Every structure is written in C-alpha cells, then in structure tokens.
Amino acid sequence: MKVSVPATSANLGPGFDCLGLAISMKNQVIIRPSKFHSVSLKGEGSNNPALKDNNMFISIFNDFYHNLSHKKRFFRFEFQNEIPLSRGLGSSSAVIVSAIASAYAIEGIKLEKDKLLNLALAYESHPDNITPAVMGGFNVACVQENEVKYIRKEIPKSLKAVVVVPNRAISTQLSRKTLPFKYSKEDTIFNISHSSLLTAAFMAEDWDMLKLASNDQVHQKYRMKQMPELFDVQKTALKEGALMSTLSGSGSTLFSIAHADDSKNLEKALKFRFPHFRVFTVDFDNTGVRIEI
Ligand SMILES: Nc1ncnc2c1ncn2[C@@H]1O[C@H](COP(=O)(O)OP(=O)(O)OP(=O)(O)O)[C@@H](O)[C@H]1O
Ligand SMILES: N[C@@H](CCO)C(=O)O
C-alpha cells in the first residue's frame, strides 16, 4: 500500500492560519506486512537517525491502527521524503495526514477526505496546511466547533511555484512564540482586508492583484527578522517577476508564484543572487493525499 501527501505553503502573506495551497513535492510511504517492525528512510530527513527511532508518523499510525484493528501485525515502512523538515512547507501536516490515511487504508476501511481532515485537526490545530495537504489546490479554511470549514479552488497549470529553501530550519512552535500577543486595530484591519482580497483574487483568477493583496502586517516581519536575508529574497523575487512572494508557513522558505513563462527567469535570478540557498520551480498540486492499495 502506498500513500503520498503534497507539500503545502500556508498563510500566503496575510491569511494567517487560514489560507494555504498545495505544491507538487511529496512525501510518500510504502507499507508492507512484515515479520518484524522496520523502517527505511530516503530523501529529506534521512541524515537524521532520530527520525527512524522516534518517528511522528509511526506514533500517529500506531494510535489509529490499534484503535481500528485488534490484530497484532508488524509492518515495514519505506519513506521517500521530498518535503524538507521545518522549512515552512508543511512537513508535519504531510506526516499527520499520511499516517492517519495509512492506518485506515491498511485495514481496508474507507475514509472520506473530510473525515481525514477533521482527524488531522487533532494533531495540528490550524487548518491552513492540513486542508491543502488533504484536498490539493488553494484553500481558505477556518475551524468551527472542532470542524474544518473550507472552500477550495484549483490552481491553473499556467502558474508555477518558485521556492527558495534556506539551509536553516525554523520550528513552527518556536516561531509562533516570536509573534506579538496583541495587534493594533490598524494591523488587524490591514490583514482582514488583504486576506479577503487575496482570497477573491484566487477565486477570480485575478493574478495581477496578488502582489498587493499578499501584503501582511501580523507575522512575516517578526519572523523574517530571525533570518534578515529573507527580506532580500522577497524583494528580489518581486523585482524579478514574481506575482507574489511570501514567507511559507512559519518559514524559513520564501514562496513565490509566477506565470509559467516567467518562472525560469525568476528561478535563475534567485539562484544567482542566493547561491547558498536551494531554489527550484514546481507545479501546484490539485489532488492532495493519494492512496494506492
Ligand atoms: N518526514 C518526517 N518524518 C517524521 N517526522 C517529521 C517528518 N517531517 C516533519 N516531521 C516532524 O515535524 C516537525 C516539523 O514541524 P514544523 O511544524 O516545525 O515544520 P513544518 O511543518 O515543516 O513547517 P510549517 O508548518 O511552517 O509548514 C519535525 O521536527 C518532526 O518532528
Ligand atoms: N499558520 C501557521 C503555519 C505554519 O504551520 C503559522 O504561521 O504558524
């Protein structure tokens, strides 16, 4: 059985904890029955031995598997990870979603995507990464009485994501602690209006509106201070043809959207200016979690 989940970029500037989209980089796990428990890990995180012993996937999978099944079985887990850890590309959401989906799939129990999303919410209280991880595409989401309410939109092939991944990790938990406890009325109004405009721009496919609408006053400037070079990355991306450029989730990745025709030039300019960071262009993902029995 094989499960894959795409990377996600959350917030998209002003949409703190509510806007997110999926991009075509994925974590994949193959699970087979085995005589004993074993784990193999390729790609991102494979140089981290702790991930083999104390793997968040295995612990969530076991929670669900033991509830769903009364048989004692062992499995071999083969992970192939493309999503860098703690870089703001939804690595934790991908793990949560794939672990829950896998436990149901291995037991042959059908799990609707909406139910999967709400089960994932118990492990990540903000819905902006888990919703696109499950559904694919662009999503606006909020939580009402422990349930995710969302609206989704496909992202056209004519757009690409250009991603700059720094060599330093930022943990979401720690990064959230750098944010102010209170915001002024002006900053609050600024973010509500820009986030609403950004959502409308995605829905109407008004790509020229993204640059203005993706401005934010509540989190990026505080977080990017931890890695001031990110301000230069953002400025360069916008100068070199990005339609928008925002801190991805809690960072450290800078995420840009460009017209497909402009994306290679943008990638080239960013690679030239920031040779010590990983820079690449990827498609958007409109599918979300995939399960193959
Ligand atoms: N492939 C993986 N296998 C096991 N655990 C993982 C894996 N990827 C991420 N994790 C767990 O998730 C943590 C990273 O979560 P964190 O929320 O800080 O970053 P992120 O999800 O990559 O970023 P963001 O939420 O801003 O998009 C890691 O420290 C690790 O505990
Ligand atoms: N909305 C979340 C995304 C990262 O998980 C944050 O900005 O902290």
Automatic annotation (TrEMBL):
<keyword id="KW-0028">Amino-acid biosynthesis</keyword>
<keyword id="KW-0418">Kinase</keyword>
<dbReference type="GO" id="GO:0004413">
    <property type="term" value="F:homoserine kinase activity"/>
</dbReference>
<dbReference type="InterPro" id="IPR020568">
    <property type="entry name" value="Ribosomal_Su5_D2-typ_SF"/>
</dbReference>
<keyword id="KW-0067">ATP-binding</keyword>
<dbReference type="GO" id="GO:0009088">
    <property type="term" value="P:threonine biosynthetic process"/>
</dbReference>
<dbReference type="InterPro" id="IPR006204">
    <property type="entry name" value="GHMP_kinase_N_dom"/>
</dbReference>
<dbReference type="GO" id="GO:0005737">
    <property type="term" value="C:cytoplasm"/>
</dbReference>
<keyword id="KW-0963">Cytoplasm</keyword>
<feature type="binding site">
    <location>
        <begin position="84"/>
        <end position="94"/>
    </location>
    <ligand>
        <name>ATP</name>
    </ligand>
</feature>
<feature type="domain" description="GHMP kinase N-terminal">
    <location>
        <begin position="69"/>
        <end position="137"/>
    </location>
</feature>
<keyword id="KW-0547">Nucleotide-binding</keyword>
<dbReference type="InterPro" id="IPR013750">
    <property type="entry name" value="GHMP_kinase_C_dom"/>
</dbReference>
<comment type="pathway">
    <text>Amino-acid biosynthesis; L-threonine biosynthesis; L-threonine from L-aspartate: step 4/5.</text>
</comment>
<dbReference type="InterPro" id="IPR014721">
    <property type="entry name" value="Ribsml_uS5_D2-typ_fold_subgr"/>
</dbReference>
<feature type="domain" description="GHMP kinase C-terminal">
    <location>
        <begin position="200"/>
        <end position="275"/>
    </location>
</feature>
<dbReference type="Pfam" id="PF08544">
    <property type="entry name" value="GHMP_kinases_C"/>
</dbReference>
<dbReference type="GO" id="GO:0005524">
    <property type="term" value="F:ATP binding"/>
</dbReference>
<comment type="function">
    <text>Catalyzes the ATP-dependent phosphorylation of L-homoserine to L-homoserine phosphate.</text>
</comment>
<comment type="similarity">
    <text>Belongs to the GHMP kinase family. Homoserine kinase subfamily.</text>
</comment>
<keyword id="KW-0791">Threonine biosynthesis</keyword>
<dbReference type="InterPro" id="IPR036554">
    <property type="entry name" value="GHMP_kinase_C_sf"/>
</dbReference>
<dbReference type="Pfam" id="PF00288">
    <property type="entry name" value="GHMP_kinases_N"/>
</dbReference>
<dbReference type="InterPro" id="IPR000870">
    <property type="entry name" value="Homoserine_kinase"/>
</dbReference>
<keyword id="KW-0808">Transferase</keyword>
<protein>
    <recommendedName>
        <fullName>Homoserine kinase</fullName>
        <ecNumber>2.7.1.39</ecNumber>
    </recommendedName>
</protein>
<dbReference type="InterPro" id="IPR006203">
    <property type="entry name" value="GHMP_knse_ATP-bd_CS"/>
</dbReference>
